[in-house]
């Protein structure tokens, strides 16, 4: 009634009288739905009719803080403090401003002082806990959230924060102990069972994780998170068909997600059903065309099936989404090599190196392609660059031997041959594969014989 009356007033420019409580309710409504301009208008009108109302001034402080106008907020706080020095809301707002300025220890002092005046300390404990979290003081944070739990066992926000503290300390055993204790007192909490399952999952105790997730979905048959975690656990246990069943449940309970489709596809891959896996990966990219992982999974399956034209199509989709992903460029290079598109292969390997991929396999693959198309000098430059990082790598040395021989620099060539033979004598087959003519030369045979 008050709200419709207020909005009618705004439309007609008439001025109606509201008591302070009505203004509070109107302002809170607008703040809750994110209409801050209307909330500010209501505060302005409210204070014009009730200039000494502390509650309205406190709401005005809230607006100042939201707009990061901390200076105005502090002025108004000081004004109220002169009248009501022990107003509990003032403590909260002071703490919020201090926290915004990263003065978390000072905020904690203010909040602790407020405990002497507030009727319900739950919100204060939660705020203190959050300030300790900002300081990475997980022990004190956890203790304050635990106080909230002791008073209200349905305070799941505090429960999550306690578990988060344990996780940040990587103390999963204590987290499990805490959750089991909580469940003893609140056995029908699907949230607690779900969190317990996640802790068991972290320590790879998949059987106990599965039991916990089972309880979570028994308590709440519509608990999507429980089914997802249960499915992931079943995957770890190798029960892929059961995992698929649980992922499918999540699709029935809510709108389909690309994540679930991908996981189902991966299960079918493990069940050696690539055709069905492809179906689900295609559903995933339909749901989320920007999910590059799904495009890569499609690429891999078509690559394995030697359908390189489709593989190149899908890896291009992945690269359109993330052209800085080294793994995608490697796969792009591999596919182009299979298609004998050597210029694209070279471009892809060069892109890998440009992006910081200095794996020896990239250098060797790039050099081999350059050699195959007769670009021996370019291949030599690539291998010399690789030599700066890989000083004792036989496959590199054998290739340098062959390329220096082709470049008529025998002294360099035989130096690299000796290095290669001393590192890995068995790897000399590289010479036969890449430089069959050179491998038959008498001096080459003689040097090799010395190391046999």
Descriptive account of the structure:
By secondary structure, the chain is mainly alpha-helical. Helix content is 77%, strand content 0%. The protein has helices spanning 2-12, 20-32, 36-49, 54-66, 70-83, 88-100, 104-114, 122-134, 138-151, 156-168, 172-185, 190-202, 206-219, 224-236, 240-253, 258-270, 274-287, 292-304, 308-321, 326-338, 342-354, 360-372, 376-387, 394-406, 410-423, 429-434, 436-439, 442-451. It is elongated and about 105 Å long. The chain starts with a helix and ends with a helix. The mean pLDDT is 88.
Give a brief rundown of this model.
With 452 residues, the chain is mainly α. It is built from 28 helices and no strands.
Q: What are its keywords?
A:
452 residues, mainly alpha, 0% strand
Determine the strand fraction and express it as a percent band. Answer: under 5%
**Secondary-structure element string:** HHHHHHHHHHHHHHHHHHHHHHHHHHHH
What is the helix fraction of residues, given as a range? over 70%
Helical segment count: 28
* Main sheet specs: none
Low-confidence stretches: none
What gyration radius follows from the Cα positions, in whole Å? 34 Å
Inertia-based shape: elongated
Helix/strand/pairing category: mainly alpha
- What's the count of strands? 0
- What average pLDDT do the residues reach? 88
End-to-end C-alpha gap:
99 Å
């Amino acid at each position: 009634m008050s709200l419709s009356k207020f909005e009618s007033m705004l439309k007609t420019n008439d001025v109606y009288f509201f008591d302070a409580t009505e203004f509070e309710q109107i302002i809170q409504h607008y703040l809750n739905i994110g209409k801050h301009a209307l909330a500010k208008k209501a505060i302005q009108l409210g204070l014009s009719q009730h200039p000494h109302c502390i509650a309205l001034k406190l709401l005005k402080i809230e607006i100042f803080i939201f707009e990061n106008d901390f200076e105005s907020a502090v002025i108004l706080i000081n004004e109220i403090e002169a009248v009501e020095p022990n107003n509990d809301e003032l403590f909260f707002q002071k703490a919020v401003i201090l926290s915004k300025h990263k003065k978390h220890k000072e905020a904690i002092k203010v909040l602790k002082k407020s405990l002497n005046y507030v009727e319900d300390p739950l919100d204060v404990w939660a705020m203190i806990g959050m300030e300790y979290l900002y300081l990475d003081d997980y022990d004190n944070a956890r203790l304050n959230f635990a106080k909230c739990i002791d008073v209200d066992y349905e305070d799941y926000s505090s429960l999550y924060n306690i578990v988060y503290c344990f996780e940040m300390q990587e103390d999963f055993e204590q987290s499990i102990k805490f959750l089991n204790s909580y469940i003893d007192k609140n056995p029908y909490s699907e949230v607690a069972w779900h969190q317990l399952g996640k802790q068991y999952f972290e320590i790879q105790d998949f059987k106990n994780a599965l039991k916990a997730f089972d309880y979570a979905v028994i308590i709440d048959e519509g608990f999507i998170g429980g089914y997802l975690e249960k499915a992931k656990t079943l995957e770890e246990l190798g029960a892929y068909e059961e995992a698929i069943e649980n992922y499918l449940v999540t699709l029935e309970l809510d709108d389909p997600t690309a994540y679930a489709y991908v996981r189902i596809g991966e299960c079918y891959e493990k069940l050696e059903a690539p055709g069905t896996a492809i179906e689900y990966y295609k559903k995933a990219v339909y749901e989320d065309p920007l999910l590059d992982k799904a495009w890569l999974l499609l690429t891999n399956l078509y690559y394995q099936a030697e359908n390189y034209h489709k593989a190149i199509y899908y890896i291009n989709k992945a690269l359109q989404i993330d052209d800085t992903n080294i793994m995608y460029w490697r796969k792009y290079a591999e596919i182009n090599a299979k298609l004998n598109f050597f210029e694209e292969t070279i471009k892809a390997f060069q892109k890998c190196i440009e992006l910081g991929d200095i794996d020896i396999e990239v250098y060797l693959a790039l050099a081999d392609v350059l050699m195959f198309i007769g670009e021996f000098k370019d291949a030599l430059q690539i291998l010399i660059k690789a030599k700066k990082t890989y000083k004792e790598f036989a496959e590199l040395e054998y290739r340098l031997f062959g390329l220096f021989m082709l470049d008529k620099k025998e002294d360099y060539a035989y130096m690299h041959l000796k290095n290669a033979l001393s590192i890995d004598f068995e790897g000399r087959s590289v010479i036969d594969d890449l430089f069959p003519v050179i491998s038959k030369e008498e001096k080459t045979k003689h040097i090799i014989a010395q190391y046999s």
